[in-house]
Amino acid sequence: MPLEIVLAFFTAFVTSLIPAFHPNNISFLFSNFNSRELSLAVLYSSQAFFTMIISTLFFIPDSSTTIMPLPAQRLVLKNKTMLAILLIAFTTILTSLICLLIHNLIIDFYKGYTNYFNQALLLFFVIIFTTYAILAENNKLIALIYFLLCGYLGILAFNHLSNPFITIFSALFGVTAIISSSNTNHNQISFSFTRKDTEKALALIFRNLNVILIAILLSTVAEVLPTISSDAQLAFLALPFLKNDYSCIILLSAISASHLFTTVISNYSVSLKRTGFSASIESITGYDNLVIIIFTIFLSLIASVITIFILLKKINEIKSYVMNNLRAFYLILIVISNYVINSYTGIVFLFLFSILGFIPYYNNIKRFLGMGSIALNYIITTSQRLL
User: Fold this and answer.
1) 297, 313 contact by CB (below 8 A)
2) Hey, which residues does 183 pair with through a beta bridge?
3) Which residues make Cβ contacts (< 8 Å) with residue 143, sequence separation at least 6?
4) Whether the predicted pLDDT of 351 surpasses 80
5) Counting beta carbons within 10 angstroms of the beta carbon of residue 265, is it exposed (0 to 12), middle (13 to 18) or buried (19 or more)?
6) Which of 51, 126, 178, 314 could form a disulfide with 16 if both were Cys (CB 3.0 to 4.6 A apart)?
7) Rounded to the nearest 5°, which phi and psi values hold at 229?
8) What does the pLDDT look like over 274-315, one tens digit per residue?
9) 62 with 271: CB under 8 angstroms?
């Protein structure tokens, strides 16, 4: 068991060095582990934190497709790199601690939500959010066309693939990001921090404690809203109301951390599986098992924070090696995983979704509009059931 967990932790670090490479692409490799649930908890939680740090601070941001790099990169350009790192690290730990302390309240929410939410209301929320996301784009026509194209291909995928999610997400967010990603060289940036940086980071976090609580609330509610569950989608709802980059970084870090907890708690409470992480560990039975998993997530995030500070000065060097030598390996791994799970048909859909995945890069729209691949199918099938 310890070896399996160490392997999961190491895998999380290495895969985080490639932009947008999601654990969903390789979670099947851990399916036969004796400690499968714990290994997957380590993989998903550690990779989430490593990605926040590495993608945020060591890769060129793309304003049309990403959210977190924008405020963090602005701090980097102002020579406040360590402050950004400390904000992400401290927010992650505090958010995780709060989720641990209130996990029973979250359980009660999920067990009671069926009394207040029904299919019609959920459908209404999805339609409203989808409309808002499209209208918020500057290029609304392209955003609508992209959403509909992803939706149409998504409907076909759900009808022809045994596991459409891995193909859809690995193509739209994995293949395209690996091929188009570029990296920056931050050798000139100082990664040493002072007591003043630490004090300022802590002060900013406690000043924005309400932002952390809002992030936890968004993560909790998102689990009952079909097709709305990614960190970028959740942040999209709150970012317009924040006043500065510090609050934005805190919000995004808190959403990323809390979402790890809420997705497994909803799995245990009412068997909801809205994320790849929750689906990969199947059904959580027994309160003791839930506690073990969420405590594993907490410890994994702490270990990830410590690892980042130990390796910080070496990450740029390691990242450059991975980007230069392992891109092809990751692409091959994505293709193999799709073939194993969805056969040759999965490869065809992987190719088609990958082509669609490049549209946001060249048309200045957000990548999470690719949620149309799931949302449109949900809207149509749910409407048919209700009518």
Assistant:
1) no
2) 59
3) 133, 134, 137, 365, 369
4) yes
5) buried
6) 51
7) -155, -10
8) 777 887 887 788 899 999 999 999 999 999 999 988 887 777
9) no
Residue 50 near residue 161, CB atoms below 8 Å: no
Residue 213's contacts (CB-CB under 8 Å, 6 or more residues apart) are 98
CB 53 within 8 A of CB 308: yes
What separation in angstroms does the CA of 216 have from each of 33, 200, 208, 293?
A: 31, 23, 13, 18
- For residue 16, give the nearest of 208, 220, 300 by alpha carbon: 300
Q: Which residues contact 145 (CB under 8 A, 6 or more apart)?
A: none
Please tell me the chain's helix, strand, coil percentages from 3-state DSSP, rounded to the nearest 5: 80, 0, 20
Alpha-carbon distance values, 145 to 67, 217, 239 (Å)? 22, 32, 25
Residues with Cβ within 8 Å of 47's Cβ and at least 6 positions away in sequence, in order, are 11, 12, 13, 15, 16, 23
Q: Are 244 and 281 in contact (CB under 8 A)?
A: no
Tokens of 267: 């799995």
Report if pTM > 0.85. Answer: no
Q: Two tokens at 60?
A: 């060129």
Q: Which residue has the tokens 């809203």?
A: 225
Tell me the CA end-to-end span of the chain in Å, nearest whole number. 50
- CA-to-CA distance for 330 and 336, rounded, in angstroms? 10
Could you tell me if 114 and 128 are in contact, meaning their C-beta atoms sit under 8 angstroms apart? no
Contacts 24+ apart (CB under 8 A), 115-120: 117/224, 119/382, 119/385, 119/386, 120/386
Q: Give residue 187's identity as a one-letter amino acid code.
A: N
Q: What tokens were used for 131? A: 């409309």
Whether residue 358 is predicted with pLDDT greater than 80 in this model: the reply is yes
Both structure tokens of 215 = 């992030």
Vertex 16 angle, CA 13 and 18, to 5°: 135
User: Per residue in 151-196, pLDDT tens?
Assistant: 999 999 989 988 887 788 778 877 776 776 655 444 455 566 678 8
